Amino acid sequence: MTQFEYKHYEEAAAYLRRFIPEDTKVAITLGSGLGALADMIEDAKAIPYDTIPNFVKSTAIGHKGQLIVGKLGGVPVVAMQGRFHYYEGYSMQQVTFHVRVFKLLGIEYLFVSNAAGGTNESFKVGDLMIITDHINLLPNPLIGPNMSEFGPRFSDMTRAYDRALIAKAKEVAAQQNTALKEGVYVGWTGPSYETPAEYKFLNIIGGDAIGMSTVPEVIMARHCDIRVFGMSVITNEGYHFDDDFVNDGDDVIRAANSASKKMTALFTEVIRSLY
């Protein structure tokens, strides 16, 4: 298991301080097929992950593997154009390394997005789902010695997804005439997609959508007292399985891309409201 020391986070933060303005308080993590939001960032500077001390490479489909620094809706942001996953063979400390670096850089809000399979029968491909809670079926990234510089040994998760940010997102969505779903996201290891029985099981235990990311970052962010807003794009429907049904990675990317414009508009206005 990779175990970082405080100095490793500080090395990365020290490198990034030359690029990230001090008044930047919002970070965004963009999931599969959702990197288009980064293209809307003005005055953008791209920083490849492999140039940042102690970062790893993003190898997932649809993840460009770079940090974008600039302005979204006129306010400073830093965006992860691609994230790291447990299924890539990285440790949970590597998967969530960037979150603690963001904390050292003064980030107060983390916006996370992902492509997810819907198990709620009211969900359709292309729907946007506000994440109201999650079920973690991945290893917890806080396992191991606690790093008290970032947070307590036992961190509270009763309000993992910030209620004020959720309320603001609903208000913005109404103004933009954008329909939203709400639900519980299940973090799953992958990389194989779920069987029909697994889809059913995950719905029975309370999951509305399933993915292979996000939850570790949220756990780490809350340990660091960073406020979180999360959104899933429903890219496949995991509740009817006829003879033609298959899960296909390219289809997931296409569905995410088609919904990214709506998500970008919503994120932009909610983030603008924070300044």
From TrEMBL:
Pathway: Purine metabolism; purine nucleoside salvage. The keyword Transferase applies. It is an enzyme of class 2 (transferase). Its EC number is 2.4.2.1. The keyword Secreted does not apply. Belongs to the PNP/MTAP phosphorylase family. The purine nucleoside phosphorylases catalyze the phosphorolytic breakdown of the N-glycosidic bond in the beta-(deoxy)ribonucleoside molecules, with the formation of the corresponding free purine bases and pentose-1-phosphate. This is Purine nucleoside phosphorylase. It comes from Porphyromonas canoris.
